[in-house]
Each structure stands twice: as C-alpha cells, then as structure tokens.
Design a protein that fits this description.
2 copies of one chain form a homodimer. By secondary structure, chain A is an alpha+beta fold. Helix content of chain A is about 40%, strand content about 25%. Chain A contains 5 helices and 6 strands. The interface of A and B includes residues 64, 116 and 123 of A. The structure holds a DNA duplex.
DNA sequence: CTATGTGCAAACTATTTGCCGTCTG
DNA sequence: CAGACGGCAAATAGTTTGCACATAG
C-alpha cells in the first residue's frame, strides 16, 4: 500500500474542482491552477485527478470524442445531458437510478462500483435554434 | 444532401456486425472483414461504422480509455455492464430506462436522441476471484 | 460519366509514461 | 532521508483526414 502525500498541487487542484461545483476537463483545471502554481504541468493535473477518482473523491464523465470531465463527488446518483451542438454537459439529479442500479446488479450478479446515465441530444437553447 | 452508395465494404461490415449479434470494436470488425475483402482499410471500417450510426443502424458504447464498441440497434433500450478486470461488456435489458429518459427530457426541456446507461465494476466471474 | 467511396499514410488529440531532480512526512 | 511526487518531453492509442484513384448508380 502506497502512502500518499498531500502536496500543494493536489490541494490546489481539488480546491478548484470543489469551488467550481461542476464538471471540468483536465485542461480547464490546468488553465486555472496555473494562476496559483505557475509552472505546474498538465501531467500533474491528470495524475492527481486520476488519484482523486481512485480514492472516491471525484467522478468522471465521458462522452466519446470529447475530453473527459471530472467533478467532485456530490449527489448519491445523478446523470448527465450532453448537447451535441454546443458541447455543454448538464447535470440531472435522478434518484430512481439508485434503485435501478441495485436491482440490475442483483439480477446480473455484478459488483457495480460506478454507474453512468447519459442522454445525448440538443439542449433547450440549441433545439430552439432548430439545428441539424 | 449526399446520395449514399452501397459498396461491398459497407455490406460486409454491416453483415458482420449483424451476424455477431453483439458489440464489436472497429478493430474486431476489421479483423474479420479482412477475410472477405483482403485489402480493406481500417479507415473504411471506421467511416462506415460512423455512417451506420448516423443513419440509426448502429449504436455506440464507450467507456473511458477503451476503444468504442458498435452494435446493430436492437432493443428499444438497454444498458451495459463493464467489468474493469476482464474488460468485457455485457448487455442489460432494462425497460424502465425509457420512462426515466422521457420524464427527464420533459423536465429538463432537452431533446434527447440517444441515451446510455453503464455500470462499471466487477462481473460475477472476476468478483468471485476477489480481485482488487 | 460524376461525385461518392476507398486505401494508404500521415495527422491529430487526449492522455500516459520515463526519467530525474524535488520536497513531503 | 526514503521514496512519493512533479516537471518536462516523448510516447501512445484510438480515431480522423487529405489525397488520388476506383467504382456505384
């Protein structure tokens, strides 16, 4: 078992993610953390976001062809809406997931650790514009 | 509007996917289609799988850090279980998704087109082995 | 015939890794 | 003061694209 150390890089990255209160990509975090730690490297941001995820502090949201998002773990269960036009991600609180997830895991004899619910389409604003 | 042509590459790729009756990666399809069309290119496989998806013939399943899977569209709604140990993907038929999806779309004023439900964890076999 | 589709090779993007010096505990 | 961590640059993997020729309709 590796004994982890709390570096200022780690602290800064986590604080940024917590303050934003939404999902951010590694690159977005990098853009902000550079203000306080001038020569921090993107690799460090990736490494720490991954560590936090492994330790259950963060969740990852992934849409094919897009950079991964990270967010501080907050709701017991929530899903996401991804607008394929403006490329924005939106949260959806949805409690029924927990039950569905638990039932599926029991039925399928699967030890679930994370679960993801994602709807891809057009958000109100983009659909209003009648985009293809 | 582009008028599409039905080439033998397209036909072969679709047939393979339909015959398998599960999700396959582009590379897996490539491995098989090469038997019948010796000098087919992986790029062609990617191009055609994408086209089929756009035309509603296929669905895509993706998990961060893994190659994308494609499958012929079959159930009205189903989700997936991904085992992080053996890296296998399993289908879950789950009808309640439709309702949840419809309700969310109405509540959030979102024009949904595709939706994905994914549980990541350990499958029966790998959990039995008490893997970390 | 003509413009869509293909094969090839090169490009691309997000992410990961190796190396080696730095700094936490 | 050992070994976890960080910075840098190079590597990686999956996928996409540009180009010139092939071919479906």
């Amino acid at each position: 078992m590796v004994r982890r150390r709390l570096t200022r890089q780690k602290r800064a990255i986590f604080e940024i993610l917590k303050k934003t209160n939404t999902h951010m990509t590694a690159d977005e975090v990098f853009g902000i953390v550079k203000n306080s730690i001038k020569n921090i490297s993107l690799a460090t941001v990736y490494r720490n976001l991954e560590l936090m995820t492994e330790n259950g502090l963060c969740d990852e949201v992934y849409v094919a062809g897009r950079p991964k998002w990270f967010e501080v773990k907050k709701y017991a269960s929530h899903g996401h809406l991804f607008c394929r036009k403006c490329l924005k991600l939106e949260d959806v609180i949805e409690c029924s997931f927990c039950f569905t997830k638990n039932r599926i895991e029991k039925e399928m004899n699967f030890k679930g650790e994370e679960f993801k619910f994602l709807i891809i389409g057009l958000c109100k604003r983009c659909y209003g514009k009648r985009v293809t």
